[in-house]
């Protein structure tokens, strides 16, 4: 079986590209760093890839809104390529800034390029926060979390604008259609809106969502920062056979793409 | 015509900036008349129609999900006071470029210029004019870079015509005139000014302003380290220059892993598999003192460029920061005129470091904050950076005649003019007014894309040499790169942020995010291609010549023509006298403690002991995925660790350790022993995490009061301590920096000197991170072991003494030869896999170390204080180079630590209690939750 090809999209200010590359690579994919300029110039085409990954960082300095300038660029210049990519049943993953970009293009949660239905607002405590949190993996049709449903995973958040917010009707729709993939969980394993377990005050404790097909997924925490055991702050307190929690997300993406 | 768009959160939705401002107004300023603050973004566009502005508002500026907007009209209409705060014209707003790009992406073509700012609406019936004045001056407006917009600007375009190049008639100046020329601008002394005068007399011409400025800059204390190169007479005895002593000690150590020491932008040591790691630590005290946010940002940006400017370019792996401030609760009236309040300084410096490092994607994972009232004179802001590069690219190369000089990255503006010379001057009550141009706003995204381009070019072998454009700008970067060979640049080729810069300003500008490259002409096109791919501007400024002169032209006219030899070797060596006076600090009389829970809580809540977690959480310490020992971990994620350990090569077991140590208070008592303490503490932090003392190197940073006889005497002793430490341990210093201007002089004759700071930073390599430990206790029923040599009666400078209002005389006196034996024993023990946890003893003593290990493990502890020990001294003595370790219950102590002092002092327990007994009687039983609350409270109050 050929390794699925992953386009790791870079531009000014993207800075989690190398660890995302490493995570997909470790999960069995063949990755390539692609600068958005290369797609705009035609040197690279999204169609040559099975997975599009939008890594974390501060694209264009997060000016105006986090991820906004890149979202405008994608929705203006890569609209057709993106629509084609999504329509072909391929996978899109946005992590942190990548999630903010996906929401601001409209691809999440409604898979409608150019129409923004949700947002990621400033954290409730109004500052950047870097800490490890627990996520409850919800039952959904998200392909990135197959076989993880119901489990609690430990991941790091590092963001200043991660509060998932949308109008009540949209929120209800997302919930009803099972588009919530991850929720911040308290020590008891239940979803929480309370700081610090929920680091940003997200509505319904939402940490990640997918579209209705489950093939486009965005999340604020960084699963790519836990694909090696020693990346966890407390690996010295863990059992020696612990499998890094983030790795399964990338493996699921690779497995799904192999079967396509 | 300028179009204005205002964007505001919809009613009922959170306004985090408004809430944050309100909190500060109520809490930090104590102004209660303001009941609510609403904020709005203001965007201005020149060259487009109102309709186009509305289109941008809908597509780019406002999101309908949570915001509304208005074009050319107010959005806050019901507030008592509405004010807009913007960057001053000429201060680069990093957002402007993004606005231009996105507008173009959206098909808006006529846009000439854009700007953004913030508008504040203050609500409350009793807000006075004086309240608003204070809010603006103390909180919202830093007058060096920002202003209150009272009138809508007529244009956003900055116009200007450069003035002619001036000639300074130095040959006929009197001594008095020479000194006037020097004051506030050149910072050279009379002897140095006369050397310049004589040089031009010999040339039979007067210097241009370019020439006089570049001499002042090249000869500034900041760039040339005159004091460190001076011959010194200490107490009548002549001694070699300080820098020579340090370099000689390093050379004598013959450390096998060192690849380059003191010759490059950072020091380099061998890592694994053909790679090398490098480290550099810098200070940014002067800019941070007057504009802490911009100062800290440019400090981080500069030290990162030192890493990428090492060898043929290194990737930045980590950022560190060490700060010294006056206590944040210092009453406002105690702050000298011309200085900023430490509460504001601390918060703004942290925000600057955060915004630069986080945006660059560089983890900030090691640091500390120290407090002493005398830092009100000037804060100490130390920033470090570490990197990795191919070992084969780690040697500095020289440009060849015919190679091109390229500038890469940001454009040149009027920012930071006189930064290098200004940093060399003392603080005065005029500092803020006179040197405002020495500060600017950093642009981390510009730097990040430039680094990406440089590393891509390095990997293709396109670079001959590279250096950072930092203090002194092109003058320094180009001048140093061409110092052996000669160089000629055309200043009018430099891309400018706005027109109107005089040639000397282009030459001296310290605009950030620029690097200078030497590139063979054959490689130029390929290099430019890479730069275009990363949206990086690259421009050929000139070429390296071979004539050993530094020449510059502007529009065809020569504006500078100097011999490199005069520029770099013409400065006369100083001869300085030093004599240190031991200050009187009487020993206090110790009283027996009656209330242990109060005493212990006060120690834990002391500013120099308390948890700095609220600061660490603001920094991204996990980006790059390399962390193998984070700043905080443990059962609840709030137990501190001693060092950072990274795995720079993902998937490989190799570790890089980073740590540091400093103790300004001990240096006030005795700079020799205080400095040994700093070095011992730095190394202890690395060793207690599992690093091998034979495979680590050191970086020095001396932040000192102005070097008068006394301060220079202290510096001499500090350097001697460093040299003795290198001799005994074999660990060399491979990079360093000094900043000798931390004295404040007020108009009324007030003189305040900071406590002298020696910060020792450590980095090293670890073959396998799985053989390292964290500081949190791993379980109940394990042995707690004390390792190391200490005389617990040496209490001077301790937190315990400080709580008694005393400093004391009898400070910890370390023996570096003994230290090395302990380091080796601790390392061997961790490497053997037998230790469960280890933590070194520093401020707050054994007591604080023990409590922190309990916090991390969510365990308790029960200890026995030896019969011959005074309990307060046993618990709160701060001798560095001592460790607490956790061993399994059945482990044999003698087996694990042979040949060094060690003893079992107690065991870990399951409960949340810390108990101590002596002579078979319980001394105290303390609630660890209460201690933790006391330990966490101080910084939570500053960083809520």
UniProtKB/TrEMBL annotation, chain A:
Function: Part of the phosphoribosylformylglycinamidine synthase complex involved in the purines biosynthetic pathway. Catalyzes the ATP-dependent conversion of formylglycinamide ribonucleotide (FGAR) and glutamine to yield formylglycinamidine ribonucleotide (FGAM) and glutamate. The FGAM synthase complex is composed of three subunits. PurQ produces an ammonia molecule by converting glutamine to glutamate. PurL transfers the ammonia molecule to FGAR to form FGAM in an ATP-dependent manner.
Catalytic activity: L-glutamine + H2O = L-glutamate + NH4(+); N(2)-formyl-N(1)-(5-phospho-beta-D-ribosyl)glycinamide + L-glutamine + ATP + H2O = 2-formamido-N(1)-(5-O-phospho-beta-D-ribosyl)acetamidine + L-glutamate + ADP + phosphate + H(+)
UniProt KW keywords: ATP-binding, Cytoplasm, Glutamine amidotransferase, Hydrolase, Ligase, Nucleotide-binding, Purine biosynthesis
Organism listed in the record: Pelotomaculum schinkii
Designated name of the protein: Phosphoribosylformylglycinamidine synthase subunit PurQ
CDD domains assigned: GATase1_FGAR_AT (cd01740)
Subcellular location: Cytoplasm
SMART domains (UniProt xref): GATase_5
Automatic annotation (TrEMBL), chain B:
Annotated protein name in UniProt: Phosphoribosylformylglycinamidine synthase subunit PurL
GO terms for cellular component: cytoplasm
Pathway(s) this gene product operates in, as recorded in its UniProt entry: Purine metabolism; IMP biosynthesis via de novo pathway; 5-amino-1-(5-phospho-D-ribosyl)imidazole from N(2)-formyl-N(1)-(5-phospho-D-ribosyl)glycinamide: step 1/2
One Pfam family this sequence matches: FGAR-AT_linker
Domain PurM-like C-terminal: 400-550, 780-913
Sequence ranges assigned to domain Phosphoribosylformylglycinamidine synthase linker in this UniProt record: 185-226
Description of how the protein assembles with itself and partners: Monomer. Part of the FGAM synthase complex composed of 1 PurL, 1 PurQ and 2 PurS subunits.
Locations listed in the record: Cytoplasm
Binding site for Mg(2+) 1: 282
Binding-site residues, ATP: 280, 700, 736
GO biological process: 'de novo' IMP biosynthetic process
Keywords recorded for this protein, A-Z: ATP-binding, Cytoplasm, Ligase, Magnesium, Metal-binding, Nucleotide-binding, Purine biosynthesis
InterPro entries according to UniProt: PRibForGlyAmidine_synth_PurL, PurL_linker, PurM-like_C_dom, PurM-like_C_sf, PurM-like_N, PurM-like_N_sf, PurS-like_sf
Biological function: Part of the phosphoribosylformylglycinamidine synthase complex involved in the purines biosynthetic pathway. Catalyzes the ATP-dependent conversion of formylglycinamide ribonucleotide (FGAR) and glutamine to yield formylglycinamidine ribonucleotide (FGAM) and glutamate. The FGAM synthase complex is composed of three subunits. PurQ produces an ammonia molecule by converting glutamine to glutamate. PurL transfers the ammonia molecule to FGAR to form FGAM in an ATP-dependent manner.
EC assignment: 6.3.5.3
Catalytic residue list: 222, 284
Keyword ATP-binding attributed: yes
HAMAP family: PurL_2 (MF_00420)
Catalysed transformations (reactions): N(2)-formyl-N(1)-(5-phospho-beta-D-ribosyl)glycinamide + L-glutamine + ATP + H2O = 2-formamido-N(1)-(5-O-phospho-beta-D-ribosyl)acetamidine + L-glutamate + ADP + phosphate + H(+)
